[in-house]
Design goal:
Largest sheet: none
Shape: flat
Structural class: mainly alpha
Number of strands: 0
Order of helices and strands: HHHH
Number of helices: 4
Distance between the termini: 74 Å
Strand content: under 5%
């Protein structure tokens, strides 16, 4: 018996993971991509906190959802003219869906115009 460990055959170069090649310098990322990525993260987190994820009520926290939706509304409203309607329209749709889901999930719904983000978007109606 030998104390040496067996040598692994050299893996083909294509299967090696080059993490340096997979990352980008933030300076190379266009602003519209950064904005939309942040918006998608806010949307996803808000959806989870609204109980819309697989485990539903286990992660439901309407206070957290309110904060996230409010931040999303501010981001979408402030950046809409900069990123253009092509990118802003789906973000607005997602925001409205979350606002309506929040209203539905609330035991005591906010008055129109008082819900999360409605300070920026105006009242949201189904």
């Amino acid at each position: 018996m030998s104390d040496q460990t067996p040598q692994q055959p050299d893996a083909p170069h294509a299967s090696e993971t080059d993490f340096d090649a997979m990352t980008r310098d933030i300076a190379d990322v266009p602003a519209v991509e950064v904005i939309t990525t942040v918006a998608v993260h806010l949307m996803s987190s808000a959806a989870v906190n609204l109980g819309l994820a697989e485990e539903g009520d286990a992660h439901k926290d309407l206070d957290e959802a309110r904060k996230l939706i409010h931040a999303l509304a501010g981001l979408v409203t402030a950046s809409a003219t900069e990123i253009g309607s092509y990118h802003a329209a789906p973000l607005r749709d997602g925001l409205k869906s979350l606002q309506l889901a929040f209203r539905e999930a609330s035991v005591v719904p906010d008055e129109p115009g008082q819900g999360p983000g409605e300070k920026f978007t105006g009242p949201v109606y189904g």
